[in-house]
Amino acid sequence: MRRIVFATNNANKIREVKASLGDQYEFLSLADIGCTEEIPETTNTIPGNAKQKAQYVNHNYQYNCFSEDTGLEVGALDGAPGVHTAYYGGPERDAQKNMAKVLHELSAKDDRSAQFRTVIALIIDGEEHLFEGIVRGRIADAPRGNGGFGYDPIFIPEGHATTFAEMNAEDKNAISHRGRAVAKLQAFLQQ
Questions:
Q1: CB neighbours of 167 closer than 8 A, spacing ≥ 6?
Q2: Catalytic pick from 23, 32, 69, 111?
Q3: What's the pLDDT tens digit per position in 90-115?
């Protein structure tokens, strides 16, 4: 079985991706390989940050690896929070503050359209590949549901009446931005 590192320590992301990729690879986290330092995310794009993290792990730890970066892009906010999604409400990466800031900034706006975008950067056998997943939807008027993480309580995917946080994990993963990107990654790895 081949080893592959997912360049994150976010337990929620690891759980989602592992559920999709299954047992075809020995799946390692940053903690598993002893990577405890903060990996740089200094580009101004979602694909750039995903590539930067994968390149860092590959160069410094010599593992086949993949990394992802995800952004919530809100139409009425000119695509914000975008690449700053994790820190939108402040440097502490607090989901409640992030959601509160988005809801406050949308309070006087009619357009609540938004999309989640995930880009996965894979480095395997010295080659780089990118996989993108997008799910369109809208921002709810207030947080709803107890599942998921991040902005899930305020994001309603297109064609649904419930937020990601109101869905069970299996239903969310089947339609989510990360699920779509991981499906492309999985198809590539199975070739």
A1: 145, 147, 148, 160
A2: 69
A3: 999 999 999 999 999 999 999 999 99
Which secondary structure element, helix H or strand E, spans residue 178, and what is its range?
helix 177-189
- 2-61 per-position pLDDT tens digit: 888 999 877 777 777 777 776 777 888 899 999 999 898 899 999 999 999 999 999 999
Which pLDDT score is estimated for 1?
62
Give yes or no: 32 in active site.
Answer: no
Q: Which two three-digit tokens encode residue 124?
A: 């395997």
Q: What is the DSSP letter of 152?
A: G
Q: What percent of the chain has pLDDT over 90?
A: 76
**Are 181 and 50 a contacting pair, CB within 8 Å?**
no
Q: Looking at this protein, which amino acid is placed at residue 188?
A: F
Please, is 189 exposed, middle or buried when counting C-beta atoms within 10 Å of its C-beta (0-12, 13-18, 19+)?
middle
Nearest-angstrom CA–CA distance, 106 and 92: 22
Give 107's contacts (C-beta < 8 A, 6+ positions apart): none
Query: CATH code for 2-189?
Result: 3.90.950.10
Spatial CB neighbours of 94, under 8 Å, sequence gap ≥ 6: none
> Please, what is the angle between helix 177-189 and helix 11-21, to 10°?
50
Please give the model's pTM, rounded to 2 decimal places.
Answer: 0.90
Q: Where are the domains of the chain?
A: 2-189
